[in-house]
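Q: What would this complex look like in 3D?
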Amino acid sequence: MDRSLWIKIASILGVTLVCLYGIIGIPKNQRELVDNFNNNIKLGLDLRGGSQLVLQVQVQDAFKAEADQLMDRLKTELRTASIDYGSFDRNEPGSIEDADKIEIIGKGIPIAKAGEFRRLIGERFPEWNVTSTSSSDYKMTLKPTSALELRKKTVASAIRTIESRIDGLGLAEASVQQRGAAETEPEILVQMPGVDDPARIKQILQTAALLELYQVEEGPFPSREQMLNQFNGILPPGTKAVRGMGTQESWFLLKRAPVITGRDLRDSRSAQDPMNNGWVTTFVLSQDAAGRFGRFTEANINKRLAIVLDGQVRSAPTIQNKISDNGQITGAATQQEANDLALVLRAGSLPASVVYLEERTVGPSLGADSIREGLVSGTVGLAAVVLVMLVYYKKAGINATVALILNAIILIAILAFAGATLTLPGIAGIVLTIGMAVDSNVLIFERIREELSGGKAVRAAIDAGFSRAFLTIIDTHVTAVVSSAFLFIFGTTNVKGFAVTLIIGLLANVFTAVFVSKVIFDWELSGNKKLTTLSI
Amino acid sequence: MQIFKDTNFDFLGKKVPFIGLSLLLTLAGLVSLVMKGGPRYGIDFKGGTQIYVKFADKPSEDQVRTALSKRIPGAISVVAVQGTNELIIQTEIQNERELQSTRQSIEEVLISVFGSTPDKLDFAGAGAGRLFDRLNLPLQKAGVFISDEDLRKLIGGVLSVRDKQKGGMLASFDELSGVPGMTPQILSVLKQEAYLGKYVVRNTEVVGPKVGSELRTQALLATLYALGGMLIYVGLRFEFVYGFAAVIAVFHDTIITIGLFSLFDKEISLTVIAALLTLVGYSMNDTIVVFDRIRENLQRGRKGDLTALVNRSINETLSRTIMTSGLTFLTAVALWLFGGQVLNGFSFALVVGILVGTYSSIFVASPILIFWQDFSKKRGGDQKTGGSSPVVTTAKKLAAK
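A: Here is my prediction, written as C-alpha cells for the whole assembly.
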C-alpha cells in the first residue's frame, strides 16, 4: 500500500475521531456517554418543550413621549427667554411605521421673535427640524438620523428591560434576542425552555411598569364629567386627570409634573400588609430622589399623594409625616401579584408598550414523542437504505454504508461544534440527508458499472466513474444548497434548523461520497493489484 | 444485482399520454384550488390559534366544537387525529389584541366540558415549578421531610415518567410508585393536592394575522427566488433553454404538489413550504443528472437526431434515477409513517413530490428541450436551410473546447 493512501486513511480516521469527540466527548462509562451527548446536542424548544414568544415594541410610544418631553422643556425655555407662545400640540402616530411622522405644531409665536425662536430650537433641540407654516405657526419634525437613533435606543432598552425581567423570574436558560437583521427591527424573540404555560410571563413582560408619584389636587370624582363640571369644563393649568384603579370608576386631579418617577427607584419587594394581612409591594427610592421626596413630603403634610402605575392611580394616601425614601403600592390580590409587581419595578419600565405577535408552546410530552418519532423514522430510513444498497451493490454497498454513516456523524458533529440547535425539522433534515446523500454513491456506482461493461479494467473503471460523476455531483449539490439557502433566509427558527442540517449534510456528503468512498475502493484494490472483477 | 441494464424504453415516443397525465393532475389541482378559494393555509400563514390536545378518553368532536362556538367568535375547526385520542383545535383571530386571551378562552371551554377538581392542581398540565410550589408545604404538614433539592429531583423523575413513558397522561397516580425517591406518603400527598385532568395541551400556537400574511408573502418570494436561482445556475452551467426546461419541470412539480394538498384537504404550513423548497432542489437534481448526460452525449458527437439522443440519455441514467428516487422515497416514507403528527404534512409533501419530481425530469423537462429544438429548427428553416438548433450549437462549442 503506498504512502499517500495511508495518509488519506489516517486523515479520514482523524476526522471521524474529532467528530465523535464533538458528539460524545471522551466518556468513561455509559452514563457519561449519555450526559455528554445531551450536553453537546442542544435541543430546540419543539423537542425539549418550552415556550416561545414574539413581541413587538410599539416604537411610536417612545416617539410620542419624546415629543411630549420636548413640548414641556420648550415651554420652560421659551418662558425664560421671554418668548410668547400660543399653544403646542402634537399628532398621534398610530403605528410603528408612522412613528417617524411625529410632528409638533407650535402656534402663536410673535413674528418679531421668529429668528430667536428658530435659534433656540437649533441650539437647545438640535434633533428637531423646524419649518414655518404661517407667519406665527411652526411645525417641528424629528430629523431622520435622530429618529433612527431613537428607534434603536427604544428597541435596545426594551430588550434590556425584558431580559432583566426574565432573569428576575429565574428562567436561567431563557434567551431574549432581537428578531430580524436591522437594529431598528422592533421585534423581540423570547425563548423559554421548560415553560409550558406562559400566561403569567406574558403578563409580566407586557407590564409597562412606569411608577410615578404625583401630588393630588382634587378627587376622587365618580366620573370624568363630574370632575370637568366642577372646573367649568376646563382643567386648571398644570394639572391632569387620571383614572383610579378598580371596578368602580374614579378620577383624580393630579399636578401635571410627577414628584418621583420609576427611574428613581432603588429597590422593590413584596411584603405582607400588617393592617389587613393582604400583600403590598414596597419600594425604596434612590438617594437623590429620596432628598427630593423628603423635602416634598415635609412641605405637604396632610395633603394627598397619588401612586400611579402605568397611568392608573393605585392609591392616594394622605401624607402623615416626612417620608424620605420608601413607599408601598397596595391593591395586589395575591402574594404572586405583589411579587410580580416588585419584579417588574426592579427591572425597570419599558420605553414603549409591547404587543404579542406570536406564541408557540410545546408541552414536554410532545417533545419527548417527537424525539422518539424522529429516532424511529431515522433508523428505519437508514436501515432501508442500507439494506437496498447492500442487496443492489453487494460489497460496494458496504462502502456506501460506511460513507453514509460517516456523513451522518460529520453532520451531527458540525451541529454540535457550531452549537446549533436541533429541531424537529432538523431531524427531518438529517433523515432526508440520508436519502439524498446516497444519491452521490449511486451516481458513482452506476457510472463504474457502465465503464466496466464498456470493457474498462477495474482500476480504470473506478477512476473514470469517480471523475465523471464528480461534475454531476457538484451540479446537483449546488442546486440543492441554493434552494436550502433561500429556505434559510426566509424561514422561521425551526425551518432554519432544517435548512442548516440539509446544507451541512450536503457539504459533508461531497467529502464522504467522493473522497472517503474512493479511498475505500483504493484500499480494496491495493490489497489485490490484479483484481479483475469488482463486487458492485 | 442490476435491474435496469441497457434499457431502451422509448420514453419520448410515449410522451403524449404522459404529458396528458401531467396536465390532468395540474388541472385537477387547480380546479380544487379555485373551488376551495385557494390553498388551505395552516396557522402560520393565516394567523389564529391552534391547540393540540390529548385526551384520556376519545373525545366528541361535536361536543367540543359546540362548546367552543358559544364562547369564541369566527370559524372554529376541530379535527381528530386518526388513531389517537387527540384533537387539533383551530380558531380565528381577527385582530392582534385577541392574541392575549384566545388560548385561555379555549382552555376555559375545555375545562367546562371535561371538568376539573376545584382547589386541586391539574397534574396532566403541571410543570415542575408549579408542582414544587404545590407540594412543598403540604409535604411538610404531612410530616414528610424532604430537602428542596431532593423534591426537585423527585418531581423531575415524576415528570419524566409522565412525559417520556406515558405520553403526558397517567391513568392513575400509582403508576408513579416506581419513581426513585417516591414513598407511599409522598404519593398520598400528591393524590391529595392534585388530580388527573382528562386532557393535556400538547402544543399551542398563536399567530397574529399580520404575521401570517407577511409569512405568506415571504414564502411565495422564497419559492420564486429559489426557482430564479436555479434558472440562473442551470442557465450558466448549461444553456438558457436547459434552465428554462428544468424550471418548468420543477414548477410543474410544485403546482401538482400544492394541488394534491388541496385535493386531499391538507394544510399548507411553514414546514410544508420547507418540504416544497427541498423538492425544488431535489427535482432539479434529477433533471440535472439527465441533462448532464445529454450534454455529455452531445459532446461526444454521437450521430442521430436529438430525440434519439435524449432518449438514450434518459435510458442510460434510468438505473440511477430509479435507485436514488427509490432510496430518497424510502426515507421520506419512513418519515411519513413514523415521523408523527407534527411532521405529517411535511413528509406527505416529500412523498408526493419525489414521485412527481422523478417523473417530471423524464416526461416534462426532456420533451421541452426537444420541443425547443424543433421549434427553432422550424423558424431557422424558414430563413435558411440547414440551420442547426442552439442546443446542438452550444454542445458543439463546448465540445470544441
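A: To summarize the key features: Confidence is low (pLDDT under 50) at residues 383-388 of chain B. Chain B has 13 helices and six strands.
Q: Very helpful, thank you.
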